[in-house]
Every structure is written in structure tokens, then in C-alpha cells.
Specification:
Elements: E1 5-6, E2 22-27, E3 30-35, E4 39-45, E5 50-53, H1 62-69, E6 74-77, H2 83-86, E7 95-98, H3 102-105, H4 112-139, E8 160-161, E9 169-171, E10 176-178, E11 183-188, E12 197-201, E13 206-208, E14 218-219, H5 227-239, E15 246-248, E16 256-257, H6 260-274, E17 279-283, E18 289-294, E19 299-304
Parallel strand pairs: 5-6, 6-7, 7-9, 13-15, 14-19
Antiparallel strand pairs: 1-8, 2-3, 3-4, 4-5, 10-11, 11-12, 12-13, 15-16, 17-18, 18-19
Length: 306
């Protein structure tokens, strides 16, 4: 996959704080800029500069939201090259990605991917209605920030396009981004894709998990996924969990997690590798049949169902 964006004419009518985004402060200097049900991006600020971790789908103007939150020099850091994390790259002057991901970010993507993802969006919205109704009637678990948004008013899903973008800076394992009073360290955690990174703020005990850490389903079944590498990356993160207070993830509605999730995922992936877990049938966001391994606090797509 490559980066995604809509045609330029469709940026103009979207207000920076459009209802498409869930924008809120998670703690001092850290804001969520979420596209609920799709992907979470994070703005992290220091005293001198700021980093935007991922740029989302590109459906609405994430740059305007970021600029509304900070006037500091801003660097985009892509957790990896996939389109739902790099869709707004074209709006920014400075984009960093792991060295392995730079050529992947520039790669063309099959045209049908955009249509398939918009089909998925439609299906999610159709499923959301009964889910929300049942919650209103019985459970009352959903809060305002967890509401799935319709596409922005006037947005035509047929105009959604997946287009390449280009990095201006390459990242390596161990690189430290000094924002002034806050340091973000790059951890190369391949598995979901070969260029995947996590970012850790050790002083504040924050881990930004990219697509290496999620509440599930974690995508470990695609052509560029590597299950043994994924397992090794998760074991590495699990060994660091005593240094972490909060784990922020990029997908689904449980974006803020306890560090115990790292150990659960590492153990779960070891079980998957050993063939010691039941698999159920499911589908991914491109409507492809997959096999899913389910655990208490996450799940993983591990193979296509043939």
C-alpha cells in the first residue's frame, strides 16, 4: 500500500475541527487527532518543536487541525507507509519514515484499494447504527469521543484516491527526536510491515504503538507481514513494559491501554507461531476472507482463508 489522499478540491470545504476528527488532549503535550473507526494520529509537543505521528486517511485536513493545536515547527513521522497512516502527507513539508519505508511510500497502489476501503467504510457505518442503538438501550458504554463519524458533509467517496508521497527524512533504529523537554526514540519493530516503528517517550512512560501494537484485529496476514519478525518485535516491547505507563494505539476505539497488553500480545503471537490457538473465519477491510486468532484484549488476522 502507499499513501492516500483525496483530490485537492475536496480539502477546501472541510473545517479544521470538522466532526470527522476526534481531537482531545490525552495528557500535557499529547493530543489525539483521531478518525474514529479508522485510524488514530497523535500530536506530541515539546518546548521547541512538535511531531505528528501519522497523517491518517487524507479525507479531511489534518494539517489544519495540527496547526490549530501548535504553532511550533512540525515534523510528520509515519509509523509505516500504509495508506491509512500517510494519507495527509501531501499537506506537510517535512515527512520522516524509517529508511525501509521510504521507497514503499513512493510506490503505486492498485486502484481498487480505494474503492474497497470506501466499501468497508460504508459497511462499518451500516453496522454502527444497530450497535449504537443497542448501546443506548442496554449498555451505555459508548462515550461522545467513541462515536463513529459519517464522512464529512459533501465528501464524495468516489473521489477517494490512493497516491504516493515522498519522505524528506529517513529514520533509523535508536534515532532520538529532541522536541525540547521531550525526547521521542524510534524503535524499529517490523512484522506488520518491514518498516514499522514504535515511538517511545521514556521520560514520560508513553509508547506509541503504530500498527505493531493494537487491540485487534492486528493485521499479520498481508503480503508484507512477517509473523516471526512480528513476534520478535512484540517480545522486545514486552520486555520494556515496566518503563511504560500508557500505550497508545492507532486503530479501534480502545486507543489508551495498559502496558500489560504488550505481554499479552507477545505471548499470543508465540502461541500463534506454535500453532497453539484456535482460528476463526473473518474478513479484513478489503473484504478478503481471513483467519483470526482471538485473545482477551486483542485479536490477529494471521492468514488468508483459502
Amino acid at each position: 500500500m502507499a499513501s492516500v489522499t483525496s483530490e485537492a478540491t475536496h480539502w477546501d470545504h472541510v473545517h479544521p475541527r470538522s466532526s470527522w476528527f476526534d481531537v482531545r488532549e490525552l495528557e500535557r503535550g499529547v493530543h489525539l487527532i483521531g478518525e474514529p473507526g479508522h485510524v488514530n494520529s497523535f500530536l506530541v509537543q515539546g518546548s521547541k518543536s512538535a511531531v505528528l505521528l501519522d497523517t491518517g486517511l487524507g479525507i479531511a485536513d489534518i494539517r489544519a487541525v495540527a496547526k490549530d493545536l501548535t504553532d511550533k515547527p512540525l515534523l510528520v513521522v509515519n509509523s509505516h507507509y500504509h495508506f491509512d497512516h500517510s494519507g495527509g502527507n501531501r499537506l506537510f513539508d517535512e515527512v520522516a519514515i524509517h529508511r525501509v519505508g521510504a521507497p514503499l511510500l513512493e510506490r503505486e497502489t492498485p486502484e481498487e484499494f480505494a474503492r474497497l476501503y470506501m466499501d468497508y467504510t460504508r459497511q462499518m457505518l451500516e453496522a454502527w447504527g444497530p450497535y449504537k442503538k443497542a448501546d443506548d438501550l442496554y449498555f451505555h458504554l459508548l462515550t461522545a469521543e467513541r462515536l463513529i463519524r459519517p464522512l464529512p458533509g459533501g465528501y464524495d467517496p468516489a473521489t477517494f484516491r490512493i497516491l504516493p508521497s515522498k519522505a524528506t527524512r529517513l529514520l533509523e533504529e535508536g534515532d532520538v527526536l529532541d522536541l525540547g523537554g521531550r525526547r521521542l526514540e524510534v524503535l524499529h519493530t517490523p512484522g506488520h510491515s518491514p518498516d514499522c516503528i514504535c515511538v517511545i517517550d521514556r521520560e514520560n512512560g508513553l509508547l506509541f504503538g503504530g500498527d505493531t501494537v493494537n487491540t485487534g484485529p492486528v493485521y499479520a496476514h498481508t503480503d508484507d507481514a512477517d509473523l516471526p519478525a512480528f513476534t520478535a518485535s512484540l517480545k522486545r516491547l514486552a520486555a520494556m513494559r515496566s518503563d511504560v505507563r500508557r500505550v497508545f494505539v492507532c486503530h479501534y476505539l480502545r486507543l489508551d491501554n495498559e502496558p500489560s497488553l504488550l505481554a499479552e500480545m507477545a505471548d499470543g503471537f508465540e502461541r500463534i507461531l506454535a500453532g497453539d490457538v484456535a482460528l476463526r473465519d473473518s474478513i479484513d477491510c478489503f473484504n478478503e476472507p481471513v483467519k483470526e486468532a482471538c485473545f482477551d484484549n486483542f485479536s490477529a488476522f494471521v492468514a488468508y482463508a483459502r
